[in-house]
Amino acid sequence: MSSKLSFEGRVVVVTGAGGGLGKVYALEYAKRGAKVVVNDLGGSLGGSGHDKRAADLVVGEIRKSGGTAVANYDSVSGGGSNIVKTAIDHFGRVDVVINNAGILRDVSFAKMSAEQFAQVVDVHLNGAYELSHAAWPYMLKQKFGRIINTASPAGLYGNFGQANYAAAKLGLVGLAETLSKEGLKYDIRANVIAPLASSRMTEDILPAHILKQLGPEKIAPLVLYLTHESCKVTNSIFELAGGWYGQIRWERSSGQIFNPNEETLTPEALLHKWGSINDFTDKPFKPTEHPIQLADYNDLITKARNLPKNNDQGTIKIES
Ligand code: NAI
C-alpha cells in the first residue's frame, strides 16, 4: 500500500463548498492537513439568494474535527479576487483551486433568455476564470499550483435543456487545457472532471436507487489525487461516477487531403469523399496540442499542394 497523500502545508480553495461535492472535498482536504477556504454564496440551485450558514456549517465541522478552515461568502462571479485574498490574508498562500461552484437554469433552447444563458456562463465559466486568474500570480511565483475545473457530461456531449450549462462546461475544458500549457514550466497543473453524483442538482432527475450509488465521496478521491504535489497529470479530462473513473480525449480521423485548387476543391468533391473524411478506423490521431504546434499540419498542406489537380483521382489517405 502507498502512504497516505498528505496536504499538510497546502492551502486549498474550494468554491461552492457549502454543500454537495464541494463540501466533501473541503472535509477531505482538511482531514489530510490542508488549510481550506470554504467558499459558498449559499444560494438556491438556480443561483438566487444567499446564506452564510452554508459555508459556516462546513467550516464548523472542519474545526470541530481539529482541522483548519475559513469561510468566504463571495460569489465566484465578481468575487474571485476576494476569495484569493481570504486565502492570502488567513494562510499566506494559495496552492490548490477547485472550481466547483455551480447553478442550473435548465430550459429548452427555444425558450432560453439571454439572461438565463449569461447567468449560468457567469457562475461556471467566468467564476472559474476570475478565481484562477487571481490565484495565478501566486502560483507562478511559488512555482506550484493545482487547478481543477468542474465540467459535466452535459458539456462534453450536450444535453437537452442545458445549452447554457453545456456551453459553460465545455468552456471550462478549453480554459483548463490552456492553463495546463501556460502553467507547465511552473508546475501548475490543470485538469477537468466531468462527474455524475448525488446532490441537489441530481436529486430530482435520477431515481433514488441510482442516487444511492452516486455519493459525492466517490468523486473526491480523483480530485485529491490530481491536486497532490506528487501528481504530475495535467491537461486531462476525466469522467467519473459511483466509483468508476475514465479518461476522455480528443480523436481526429486520419481524414482526406485534396489539392487546394479552387476548380476541383468543391463541395461535391467533399461529398464524394465524405466517408473517408469521417473514417476513424484507419490510424486516428489523438491531438493534445493546437495544430500550429504540430509538424503534421505543414506536412499535410505540402502533401495537398503536391497532389494532382483532379481530386477525384488525386486524393490520398494521410499516412500517420
Ligand atoms: P450543489 O448545488 O450541491 O453545489 C453547488 C454549490 O455551489 C452550492 O453549495 C451553491 O451554494 C454554490 N454556489 C452556487 N453559485 C455560487 C456562486 N456564484 N458563488 C459561490 N458559490 C456558489 O451541486 P453539486 O452537484 O455539488 O455541483 C458541484 C459542481 O459539480 C457544479 O459545478 C456542477 O455543475 C458540477 N456537476 C455536478 C454533477 C452532479 O451529478 N451532481 C454533474 C456534473 C457536474
UniProtKB/TrEMBL annotation:
GO terms for molecular function: 3-hydroxyacyl-CoA dehydratase activity; isomerase activity; oxidoreductase activity. GO terms for biological process: fatty acid beta-oxidation. It is found in: Peroxisome. Residues 10-199 form the Ketoreductase domain. One of its GO terms (cellular component) is peroxisome. Keywords: Fatty acid metabolism, Isomerase, Lipid metabolism, Lyase, Multifunctional enzyme, NADP, Oxidoreductase, Peroxisome, Repeat. Belongs to the short-chain dehydrogenases/reductases (SDR) family. Monomer. Second trifunctional enzyme acting on the beta-oxidation pathway for fatty acids, possessing hydratase-dehydrogenase-epimerase activities. Converts trans-2-enoyl-CoA via D-3-hydroxyacyl-CoA to 3-ketoacyl-CoA. This is Peroxisomal hydratase-dehydrogenase-epimerase. It comes from Zygosaccharomyces bailii (strain CLIB 213 / ATCC 58445 / CBS 680 / BCRC 21525 / NBRC 1098 / NCYC 1416 / NRRL Y-2227). The chain holds residues 1 to 320 of 921 of the full protein.
